[in-house]
Design brief:
two-stranded antiparallel sheet; globular; 44% helix
């Protein structure tokens, strides 16, 4: 058939922007230097990060030449581009504080109808765990359709046993259950300074728990909670390096107790805190998968899937404020975007008021909807590794991975994570980062809008503030095996000053630009 005269001849069409000649890096640099009018390019435009490396204001394709693994596809080892070959779906998690098991079940059934597909049951009293209570907690939940996670400071084996009984009584296929019984003795040691049992006994217990769950392919038993490093003030490189080192320590301890490499690796999952450094957080998750895949490969697993990193993300509490609290919504939204674009497997967005009171139904609904907007309206779940191919992101991934690997190797040369925790190296490194970040907040180099920049001085303290959340007590120091790291918020000192000495706060951080509006 003769083509219609209006049909364009595809053979004669030019490529988009073909009429614009390519511009070399040298030409860009000449233009930039001219605009700087004699100012030094490095001093003016090169960003010296707290992580210890320099970032240029722009990157070109030649900056990514020779970068390892950049040509791999999504779903391919070492998973720098994500573990999913098609799409970018993640699970929306919401945690539920479990005191009354029946009420917690009622809440779980409610939020499952509102977009949540991953439940986190935070059991406050481990002694309350028994078959009857766990069955009440699980009543009416379709086990195979939702990820189920248990977080408790003890009784992990009892939770596992009661959970298995509840699943079998329901008639579900136990081998299809997804989730975790989150045990993390090293994390508890780091936060509390001690364990209720000797460390070696705690690791023996962890090995026993892992053996009991060996036949459950989608149920994790070990949670490396690297978000604790973020919330103690560590920078991105240290969070990643310390998290990887803790994961490798668990690999060491479990294999020494007769657990196979593949089983040990398959039972470990990671939680990372996501801060407001938007592009760095995206690159961090890509670097994390890369480095963990290489670390596990060094253990010579039999299965390729053993090198896959399971990542849960949670919005950071470090940068959340009690004054002008709705700004926290903006912070958590960009953090959720970073986690999604970085390829997280599941995500918790903390409610905006989490740091100063018990979240209510409104703030929890908003937190859920923040993720639903990213999926249903912004389509963040439709494209695998949407950041891939960006010269800036690829270079950041390389820089974060390179610097994290150097620190990881240093820790291993010191004897591993546990040895470095006991000799104070981990705490010293975190405190160094925290001191820098606190100084940056005080000097307004790191901005917390509404706190150290443009605070609304007319704002009063809410009557429902929970000061135990705002200024948590330090752990008791008696009988500590290690000096614990302290979790805190960057705005704590400013908050204390604003509450106790508002006039001094005003002279230090106050600005009439906003308060007079």
């Amino acid at each position: 058939m003769k083509p219609d005269s209006q049909t364009p001849d595809m053979s004669k069409q030019e490529k988009l922007f073909a009429q614009f000649p390519p511009i070399s890096t040298e030409e860009w640099m000449e233009k930039i230097k001219a605009d700087l009018k004699g100012a030094d390019f490095d001093n003016k435009l090169i960003w010296k990060t707290n992580e210890g490396f320099a970032v240029k204001p722009f990157y070109r394709s030649e900056d990514t030449e020779g970068l390892t693994f950049i040509s791999t596809l999504p779903g391919e080892f070492p998973y720098i581009r994500g573990t999913k070959k098609h799409g970018n779906n993640w699970l929306i998690r919401q945690n539920i504080d479990v005191e009354d098991y029946t009420l917690a079940n009622k809440k779980a059934l409610d939020i499952l109808m509102k977009g949540v597909d991953s439940l986190g049951f935070v059991i406050s009293d481990p002694e309350s765990v028994n078959d009857k209570n766990i069955e009440a907690l699980m009543k009416g939940i379709h086990y195979e359709s939702v990820e189920i996670n248990f977080l408790s400071n003890g009784k992990a084996k009892e939770i596992l046993e009661s959970f298995i009984k509840a699943v079998k009584k329901n008639g579900s296929d136990i081998t299809k259950i997804k989730g975790a019984i989150e045990a993390d003795p090293l994390g508890r040691l780091m936060i509390n300074g001690t364990l209720c049992i000797p460390v070696e006994s705690g690791l023996d217990y962890l090995a026993s728990l892992t053996r009991e769950a060996a036949y459950l392919p989608f149920l994790k038993t070990i949670r490396v909670n690297a978000s604790n490093f973020t919330n103690a003030g560590a920078d991105i490189v240290k969070e990643l390096a310390f998290g990887l080192s803790m994961g490798n320590e668990y690999m060491t301890q479990l294999t020494e107790r007769g657990i196979s490499t593949d089983l040990a690796a398959s039972k470990i999952c990671f939680t990372f805190g996501i801060g407001s450094n938007y592009f760095f957080e995206i690159a961090k998750l890509r670097a994390a998968r890369l480095l963990w895949a290489l670390i596990v490969s060094g253990w010579n697993p039999e299965k390729d899937e053993s090198t896959v990193m399971d990542i849960h993300c949670i919005t950071s509490r470090w940068n959340k404020t009690i004054f002008d609290p709705y700004v926290n919504l903006l912070r958590t939204q960009t953090e959720a975007m970073s986690a999604a674009l970085g390829g997280t497997d599941s995500l918790t967005v903390d409610p905006f008021d989490m740091v100063f009171r018990q979240p209510d139904e409104f703030s929890e609904r908003i937190a859920r909807n923040q993720q639903l907007i990213l999926k249903d309206e912004a389509y963040f779940d439709k494209t695998a590794d949407p950041a891939g191919g960006s010269w800036y992101i690829e270079k950041l991934t390389h820089l974060i991975a390179e610097n994290s690997w150097k620190l990881f190797v240093e820790i291993e040369n010191r004897g591993g994570f546990l040895a470095s925790l006991k000799d104070g190296f981990i705490l010293k490194s975190i405190n160094e980062s925290a001191s820098i970040r606190k100084a940056d907040i005080e000097g307004k180099k790191e901005i917390l809008l509404g706190t150290n920049q443009y605070p609304d001085l007319r704002e009063t303290i809410s009557s429902d503030l929970d000061f135990s959340r705002i200024f948590p007590d330090k752990p008791e120091e008696s009988d500590n095996i290690v000096e614990p790291i302290r979790l805190f918020r960057g705005s704590e000192e400013a908050d204390k000053l604003r509450i106790s000495s508002p006039e001094i706060f005003k002279s230090k951080f106050g600005s009439t630009k906003k308060s007079e509006l």
